[in-house]
Amino acid sequence: MPQNIRIAVSHANGSRHFVLSPSLKKILLSLLATLIIGIFASIATIYYLNHRSTAAEDTLKSMTEKSSALVGQLEDLKQKRQQLEQLISNKEEEYAQIIEDKDSQLNYLTQRVSTVEEVLGLEKDAENAVPLSERLDVAAINSAVRATMLQLIPSGKPIESYRRSSGYGSRTHPVTGNKKFHLGLDLTADIGTPVYAPADGVVEYKRPSKKKGYGNLLKIDHAFGFMTLYAHLDKFNVNTGQFVKKGDLIGWSGNTGLSTGPHLHYEVRFLGRALNPKRFIAWTPDNFESLFKEEDKVKWASLVKIVEGMVATQVQLASEVVSQPGHVTAKATAVVDAKASEKDASTQ
Question: Residues of the chain with pLDDT > 70: what percent?
């Protein structure tokens, strides 16, 4: 039986015969089989990809819907958060205003009690009762003790210059018209005037408030029970809990809160009791004795003893370090630091 395949092709000019050998036959069959398999594979691939595309579109649509829902929920949460923040801010201002009013009332009553004591002569009797040994000899206070006191206790001006001031004491409030005790000084200055710390201390708290009471308010705790307060500020330069040194920039004066014009409301308190800030502003190295003569609400004699003990301890520690071999540099540094402290005190 012949293995060859004969193919006859007839046309107008006659017939042509082609002979396919078995090897060529196998090749053609293989190509045909490959072509058929390729077609089926292509069809299957197209079907699979079409199915995946449809599934991906469904997934994308579902994710888009979920994303839109989440965006809506996020917007709702943002609005609720803003409402809560506004509510908290309003409550903080409300409670701060209540505390501020109660604090002012307490200080006013304290001042009234002090006035009654002075009228009755109670404070004068108490002063005369102090033994001579416990009275303050200002002339005997050395320069190191003076420099330390001026560094730790509020002294000098909180702003470099101001046009005028509204005094400390009983007055008619310029906005409300009510008669009340003015616990500090109103130092008239342009908005944005730098405000500096009058002594070393730590920021007790800052309270932003644009429209009520003291407005933007700042309190700084100093050594030995002293505290200073700064109201109607435009901006802050410190945060609650931050330690500051005398002369550090703590903020800028403004016109926030219940205010008739740009100014800094400045208070000095001792153990929560408001004192006349004018006396502390005037307290400088060149006018060192003035505060002790004018401000009798503080037991200066015992305070000076404490400061003298602090300075003596520092001097003793410095001398012990200097006495050890190889500490010439430490000695020179201690001398330079002492001179620098005296220079800083003299420039305030």
Answer: 74
